[in-house]
Amino acid sequence: MQVLDRKENPLLDRVEIQFKIGHDGEKTPSRDSIISAVAQVEPGAKKELIIVKNINTRFGRPLTTGTAYIYGSPESMTVEPVHALKRHGVMADGEGEEVPAQSKPAAATEPESVADTDADTDTDTDADADADGGEE
């Protein structure tokens, strides 16, 4: 693994690394192997605090690039989207989900909108004008 760029982001309590991995004669490295490589490159990094993003392998070339975020604490990882935390095993599948649509109140209990009530009070003269192309 070759580190192309390393930035410290104290506001988000993380180190941001742009990396490049060559893998001649092998398949694209897995997310877990990339996390292990990042942990070896960055001293003091814990595997459970590493998020890998933007993994990109060039077609026909044994070269993979990407971005890794190394957080200082589990609390600072809350800026990451829920799906990314689940993908990395930081959050269980049932955690952090919103209320499903079935448990929300039905739409019939909500008041009708003004547009719905106006549509019911159309007169025949308005309908005839619409049929003629709206000329008055």
Q: Assign the structural class, choosing from mainly alpha, mainly beta, alpha/beta, alpha+beta, or little secondary structure.
A: alpha+beta
The count of β-strands is 4
Quick one: biggest sheet?
Answer: 4 strands, antiparallel
Question: How large is the share of residues in beta strands?
Answer: 25-35%
CATH topology call of the domain at 2-87:
Alpha-Beta Plaits
The SSE string, one letter per element, is EEHEEHHH
- The fourth-level CATH homologous superfamily of the domain at 2-87 is RRM (RNA recognition motif) domain
CATH class category label of the domain at 2-87: Alpha Beta
Average of pLDDT: 78
State the helical fraction.
Answer: 10-25%
Walk across the major sheet and give the strand order: 1-2-4-3
Which CATH-level-2 architecture of the domain at 2-87? 2-Layer Sandwich
> Low-confidence stretches at least 5 residues in length (pLDDT < 50)?
98-106
Shape: globular
Rg for CA atoms: 27 Å
Cα separation of the termini: 75 Å
| Number of DSSP helical runs | 4
Task: Describe the 3D structure.
By secondary structure, this protein is of the alpha+beta class. The chain has a domain of 86 residues: RRM (RNA recognition motif) domain (Alpha-Beta Plaits, 2-Layer Sandwich), CATH 3.30.70.330. 24% of the residues lie in helices and 25% in strands. The chain has four helices and four strands; from the N terminus they run ββαββααα. Strands 1-2-4-3 form a four-stranded antiparallel β-sheet. The longest helix is centred in the N-terminal third of the chain and has 11 residues. The protein is globular, with a radius of gyration of 27 Å. The N and C termini lie far apart (75 Å).
